[in-house]
Specification:
The complex is a heterodimer of chains A (88) and B (395).
Chain A: E1 7-9, E2 14-15, H1 16-26, H2 30-37, H3 50-61, H4 82-85
Antiparallel strand pairs in A: 1-2
Chain B: E1 2-7, H1 11-22, E2 27-30, E3 44-46, E4 52-54, H2 55-68, E5 72-74, E6 79-85, E7 89-94, E8 97-106, E9 110-112, E10 125-127, H3 128-137, E11 145-149, H4 153-164, E12 168-174, H5 187-194, H6 204-215, H7 217-225, E13 232-234, E14 237-249, E15 256-261, E16 274-277, E17 280-283, E18 287-289, H8 292-296, E19 301-304, E20 309-312, E21 325-327, H9 337-354, H10 361-376, H11 386-394
Parallel strand pairs in B: 1-2, 1-8, 2-5, 8-21, 10-17, 11-12, 11-17, 12-14
Antiparallel strand pairs in B: 3-4, 6-7, 7-8, 9-18, 13-14, 14-15, 15-16, 19-20
Helix pairs in contact in B: 1-2, 1-9, 3-4, 6-7, 9-10
The chains are: A mainly alpha (88), B alpha/beta (395).
InterPro entries (chain B): FAD/NAD-bd_sf, FAD/NAD-binding_dom, Metab_Enz_Cyan_OpOx_G3PDH
Protein name (chain B): Sarcosine oxidase subunit alpha
Domain FAD/NAD(P)-binding (chain B): 3-150, 232-344
Amino acid sequence: MENENVIICRCEEVTFKEICDTLKQYNCSSREVKLRTRAAMGYCGGRSCRSFVDTLVAEFSRRPRADDVQLKYRPPVRPMPFKTLGGE
Amino acid sequence: MIDCLIVGAGPAGLSAAIACAENGLSTMVLDEFMKPGGRLLGQLHEEPNGIWWNGIDEAEKLYQRAKALSISFHLETSVCHLEKVDGKYWTLHTDKGKFSGKNLLIATGAAEQSLPIPGWTLPGVMSIGAAQVMANVHRVKPGHRGIVIGVNVLSAAIARELLLAGVNLEGIVLPPRYLLTKGQSEPKDVFQSLLHMVHLAPSHLMKIGGKMALKSSFIRKMAVGTYPKKGFKVWGMPIKLKQTVTEIIGKENVEGVKVASVDSSGNIIEGSEEILPVDFVCISGGLYPLAELVSLAGCPFKYIPSLGGHVPVHDHNMQTPVEGLYVAGNVTGIESAKVAMAQGHLAGLSISSQKNKVSDGEALQNARESVVSTRTNALIHFHPDILDGRRRLYG
């Protein structure tokens, strides 16, 4: 399957291979994958790729998915113009 | 101050708003879409009794009832943050200003799960739900000829709607097999999950065959092994369980897909690759509860795959452990619109009872029973283990 270069995080253009390589090297959490690769750190707030990241972390670590949400949701949870966020 | 703020004007949110207002609560509903109804707006299917379920009509009925009760609506309003102020009331931050209320019901429904496939970032690739909204809500064809990737209840139901809308589709095929399509790319797994919707099959023979296959792994193996490459037609739509898309191709936008035949385990049969010209592709990896706001409110979660993933902890009255925070509809787990309506009604009564405006517990009891009976009688179960998933939440 030639999926190595398929993009997982569309906002930050992070590929399947980059995430897998990170997991192979560090066997880390979703949050660490995010901090190392920027996957799920983009414009959409991880809405498209967070479950892919969580799935890959579960696959590589062979641990079941936890009840806690792995990648914290942060406001604003919708794209907003700066003027809406505050200021004059 | 408003008694109850409701985020989401879908079947759950509208039903809850009606129940709140009928019990004397001042109620406000917010939704980011320009029309009320949520996912009801896309729905059109035939029930076993031959009557068509027209989601647009159902949405309009609920909206008119809500309007008659003087419920205030803020459509095209995106809630981007929320906070509890002084531990007493909720403030919603939106792109149209702030709104405050004593109680908060989050009925934000579900979001679609896509599947990463080579070429899936090309213009012309969309989620199956996007194609549904284009056709059923905006009356626009998504393209001239398309293909659906991902075989499940949702994609089969929407593909049928697209056919009814006059959209040309090659059929429904599997995604390529790799780590991120596990359970959705092996013909034997997908076949097994399809058997749970065999009661919807158009022919009596298929219904009997399906029931036998559900009970016998030998028949299942035989059936997957002999499954024809062209697929079986369900509602006039070929479901090609032995075909996969290995790549979506095109320069500036979708020009075609590379398809290949696979064996029962999803291995590609060498030399079977061919290119099909299509100008749009719909990907369907299922639905998951859209719970961003619930999470920001500090509610704990449980991971229950049969309900679609992470769902907010809540009790059988739709109340969360966070005081004044309620949930209803698909945000609590992926089920049909009818279950969402029953949950919304229950949540509305539950919020009203906190204000001591529902004197008898009988109404609540009836509403709880209605959720359970609607769930048990549901025509389509998005996951065969929904009842088990619900037991993990409610005990």
